[in-house]
Write a structure and sequence with these properties.
With 337 residues, the protein is of the alpha/beta class. A seven-stranded parallel β-sheet has the order 3-2-1-4-5-6-11, sandwiched between helices. The chain has eleven helices and 13 strands. It is 40% helix and 16% strand. The protein has helices at 11-22, 39-48, 62-71, 86-91, 93-113, 146-164, 198-206, 234-248, 268-279, 303-309, 317-330, and strands at residues 2-6, 26-30, 54-55, 76-79, 118-124, 169-175, 177-179, 213-216, 228-229, 231-233, 255-260, 266-267, 285-288. The chain folds into two domains: 2-180 and 231-261, Rossmann fold; 198-229 and 264-306 and 316-330, Alpha-Beta Complex (UDP-galactose 4-epimerase, domain 1), CATH 3.90.25. Helix 6 links the parallel strand 5 (118-124) and strand 6 (169-175). Bound molecules: nicotinamide-adenine-dinucleotide (NAD) and uridine-diphosphate-N-acetylglucosamine. Nicotinamide-adenine-dinucleotide binds at residues 7, 9-13, 31-36, 58-60, 80-84, 99, 103, 122, 124, 175, 178.
Length: 337
């Protein structure tokens, strides 16, 4: 298939592009580089050995999106583009609603006009709100912050469009906690500013960019008192997108919803210790207050994706840390400008 990857220069999009090309698909990238750098594309071309067409514009621009679909033949869309920082979404709710909903509106409008009927959408475990333990897809959705509401709303919008256009096929993929990097060490997660998320923060402590890890609370009702999450290797996650794309070609019902997680939970201290094993020495940390809005435990029931997509996450937490460390060591300041 010729697949349009929105947000293809971003963290998860870039890893998915590599696998799409390896599987024989053609890729077209659209990204406005709001949270990524053009040099990602050079790395992707080096990794895939292919020239990758890139359209650099803001997907909220309907005319440019329409023009893209006129210029390029597209069979399916994987829609990663969006803003994703929970704290920032509380400060800038209008930007989050405008960007995340607006990109989906332009894309789906252009798809309809050009007869493109398959879309894979990046949703999140955040749609389970406060109820994220052993989450199954039939659980009611809700959210605790504007970012989360944009995901709940985009899922609903896509469901409504599918009712009105029964030939459309949508995959709603609810990611748990993506971490890790491509085994080559040439692409990985490159957060701008101070990382919000655990593994990128530990990696920056390990490489000497941050002094110590702040562990947000050790009084949760968990194995060791620290928060537990379902970390999934970004290459396992990327493989889930290829499986969903294949599934869309044979699906009878218009919408499929799948959790992409491992089903295992790892605590903050367990993740820190796994990273220490990858680095070969201890890393400094301090226990501090809980972070407002955090749940104690979050992990998927991935059974539906395992059964219906024929997909399963296979990489371990140690694999995730080894690969993150390889990427961070080779690129201490992320992608070049
Ligand atoms: P990312 O920020 O690395 O990638 C998103 C890409 O989209 C960036 O390259 C950015 O420049 C681009 N983009 C943003 N707004 C755009 C616009 N208006 N027009 C064109 N391009 C635009 O994020 P990621 O971690 O790769 O996440 C991808 C998707 O997965 C997002 O929708 C995110 O909400 C979702 N998700 C991510 C996580 C996670 O932990 N990383 C978890 C659950 C869901
Ligand atoms: C966060 C988002 C979630 C998003 C997910 C993507 C919040 C409240 N939630 O989830 O919506 O889908 O990222 O991966 O931001 N921790 C520390 N010290 C740190 C950073 C994190 O102790 O410096 C702890 C957290 O308290 C948590 C765990 O590490 O227990 C994981 O945190 P993080 O990587 O931010 O992910 P989530 O909170 O699960």
């Amino acid at each position: 298939m010729r697949v349009l990857v929105s947000g293809g220069a971003g963290y998860i999009g870039s890893h998915t592009v590599v696998q799409l090309v390896a599987a024989g698909h053609q890729v077209v990238i659209v990204d406005n580089f709001a949270n990524s750098k053009p040099s990602v594309v050079n790395r992707l071309e080096a990794l895939t050995g292919e020239h990758l067409p890139v359209h650099a514009f803001d997907l909220r621009d309907r005319d440019k999106t329409e023009h893209l679909f006129t210029q390029e033949h597209i069979d399916a869309v994987i829609h990663f583009a969006g803003l994703k920082a929970v704290g920032e979404s509380v400060e800038l709710p209008l930007e989050y609603y405008e960007n995340n909903l607006g990109t989906t509106f332009s894309l789906v409008r252009a798809m309809q006009r050009h007869g493109v009927d398959k879309l894979v959408f990046s949703s999140s475990a955040t749609v389970y709100g406060l109820d994220q333990e052993a989450a199954t897809e039939d659980r009611p959705t809700s959210a605790t912050n504007p970012y989360g509401w944009t995901k709940v709303m985009q899922e609903q919008i896509l469901r409504d469009i599918a009712v009105a256009n029964p030939s459309m096929r949508f995959a709603l993929l609810r990611y748990f906690n993506p971490v890790g990097a491509h085994a080559s060490g040439t692409i990985g997660e490159d957060p701008q500013g101070i990382p919000n998320n655990l593994v990128p923060y530990i990696a920056q402590v390990a490489v000497g960019r941050r002094e110590y890890l702040s562990v947000y609370g050790d009084d949760y009702p968990t194995r060791d008192g620290t928060g537990e999450r379902d970390y999934i290797h970004v290459d396992d996650l990327a493989a889930g997108h290829l499986a969903a794309l294949t599934r869309l070609t044979t699906m009878d019902e218009p919408v499929g919803v799948w959790n992409l997680g491992t089903g295992q939970s790892t605590s903050v201290l367990e993740m820190l210790h796994a990273f220490e094993r990858a680095v070969g020495h201890e890393l400094p940390h301090r226990i501090v207050d809980r972070r407002v809005g955090d749940v104690a435990v979050s992990y998927a029931d991935p059974g539906k994706a395992n059964a219906e997509l024929g997909w399963r996450a296979s990489r371990t937490v140690d694999d995730m840390c080894v690969d993150t460390w390889r990427w961070q060591q080779a690129n201490p300041h992320g992608f070049p400008d």
